[in-house]
Amino acid sequence: MTSAYESDPIFQTNPLQVLNIVTRIQNREIALPDFQRDFVWDSARTAELIGSIMSRYPVGTLLFWEQGDGQPFASRSFDGAPNTSNNPPSVLVLDGQQRLTSLYQALTGSGDERYFIKVDEFVDVYSQSVREVPDVDFEEAIFSMPAVAKTGRRSQQLTPSHLPISEVHKFDDWLDDYADAIGNDPQVPLTAREAKSLYREMRDKYISPLKTYGLPVLTLPSSTSMDAVCTIFETLNRTGKPLGPFELLTARFFPQGVNLRDLWDEAESNHRALKEFRIDPYNVLQAICLRVRGTAQRSDVLKKLTGDDIKDHWKSVTSGFAGVIDMIQSDCGVTSQKWLPYGMLLTPMAAVWDKQKDLKPLERSQALRRLQQFFWASIFTTNYDQGANSQMGADYSRLANWITTGDGDAPEVIDELHINATTLRTATVRRKALYSGLICLLIKNKAADFHTGQSMTITRAHEAESHHIFPKAFLAKQQESESAELMLNRSIIDGETNRIISSNAPSVYIEKMKTTYGEQRLHDVLASHAIASQEASGLLHDDYTRFLDERLENIVQLIEEATGKQIQREAIR
Length: 573
Fold this sequence. Notes:
The chain is α+β, with helices and mostly antiparallel strands. 50% of the residues lie in helices and 10% in strands. The relative contact order is 0.07. Mean pLDDT is 86; it is low at 1-8.
């Protein structure tokens, strides 16, 4: 009985000989999708790959994707191969570009380097034997020279024993001349005939694999969906550059006159914040998909987005991201990308950004306040920790109307703020969203610089770092049972103040700060960091537990102000 897999396999596997692949690359039957990165391997890695193939060692599987008539993906030739753009490839290489480019350039003598084999490294002329693989020093036996002389790089002196790898197919002709040279050398105990026999044996063992080695190839049929291609590629290439929907759609829309790569370069040029906050261009595609399809799921982005959707929404959505970033920088204390709690959270906000632009000034102010409320509530409920794509879809469906009027169904995070004081009291800095949210909330609260007493600006916040309030070393000496890494024990503090703090007890370094700018100003600075500093406070008495409880109450008040919701306080003592 034939299984479903046997009757319709999702992929085929079979080896292809090196020379066959090189020929097909030369003829552009095999090409690269235009979203692949450039060739980056250096000559040492190429030489190592050649050595592995000569040794007949495994060098990894290649991933190909057959191209049918209905898949007009933009493609390009391998580096060094003829660029016959009118010849559509039958196969695109998804994984293996670096290896295949290295082999193609070495075997065809193209690219920036020329590769050579020192054939004498593979034989022992005195015992008239071919060395075994473990006895060959491949780092010495394979070398390269620049095709064009490079300043400051020493080149080896070529000798008759150096065989160009691009001429391995002419090995026998080369050997005729080299064997005669050996036979005429009185220091070599071989006749020309004996030399030919020995080097032919070496050819069969080490040179032949450069032509006949079978590279394992996994080929996806042309019917494979783009969603499946993404999943397969990511599974096989965990440590490499991910193949995402943006790269796939770049190739897909290119023939339709939509060049996503150029659009993204232009957007980053027009909106510096996109680069500063490392916005992923895929998030722009998700925001567009939210607008036109109401979903941000990858499969929907791949299947449902059209070139016209991109044309209609690209500029307004990229402007939306820039607008949202400006808002959270100015009004939410997110001074830089490192303190952004959730990058994905910006996507639904950017998708609805246009909704407030045409409102009257007072209405626009209220709409922005609601958008900020959504931002803070999402952070402190950690809604985007899991299932972010689904969460974006659910939030967008309600955000669009709610932020402009305040009527209708609000996003669930507004109606159901699932957070309590216990969560905040026990959260460590490993809870990145909560921790980053806390820092941003303090900056929004105009947290003052510990050293100068000046309010944090974007510039100062960039320079300052998060440090312990109760020093870790001090708590260790006290054998404190509560963790020093609780987020409540952190604030944004400049480096000079942190050196003053060192491992001192808080009461010690606070006294030093008091002499700098007086008791009242000290109180104001600490209050701006949500730190209690009254006479009986835990900070002044080096009481860590009391300090945490006091700070928790202050932080809860700030969160309530930002979210407009009341937080359960059962953990506050």
